[in-house]
Amino acid sequence: MDNEVFIFGLTIAEFEDISLKVLFTALIVYMLFIIGNLARQSKAGKYGTIWMFLALGLGFVGFVAKAFIQRMLGIE
After folding, report:
1. Cβ pair 52, 35 in contact under 8 A
2. Is the pLDDT of residue 2 over 80?
3. In terms of C-beta density within 10 A (0-12 exposed, 13-18 middle, 19 or more buried), how is residue 60 classed?
4. CA distance 63 to 44
5. Is residue 1 situated within a structural domain?
6. pLDDT score at 17
7. Model confidence, pTM
8. 45-73 vs 12-41: helix axis angle to the nearest 10?
9. What is the overall mean pLDDT for the chain?
């Protein structure tokens, strides 16, 4: 236990876990901003914007769903 490396008072594994959750959430929010900006600049309209968010946002929906499924099954 004496030779464990600590970063901000956390072990490396704890720091990586928190960093992944925080930074990936920030990345998802940034991608939502990009999709909204793309819809606005292309003048997609209401239904076009909805379809853009559905189609382009589907990539990170799986990652978020995986986290919920792991929590529900207690796999974490």
Report:
1. yes
2. no
3. middle
4. 27
5. no
6. 87
7. 0.69
8. 160
9. 87
Single-letter code of the amino acid located at 31: M
Indicate the number of domains in the chain: 1
Tell me the residue range of the domain where 14 lies.
6-73
Residue 58 inside a domain? The answer is yes
How many whole angstroms separate alpha carbon 21 and alpha carbon 17?
Answer: 6
How big is the CA angle at 56 (ends 60 and 74), to the nearest 5 degrees? Answer: 15
CA distance readout (Å), 9 to 4, 20, 34, 76? 11, 17, 35, 22
DSSP-assigned states of every residue in the chain: -TT--EETTEEHHHHHHHHHHHHHHHHHHHHHHHHHHHHHHTT-HHHHHHHHHHHHHHHHHHHHHHHHHHHHHT--
Encoded amino acid at 28, one letter: I
Q: Hunting for tokens 């819809």 — which residue is that?
A: 39
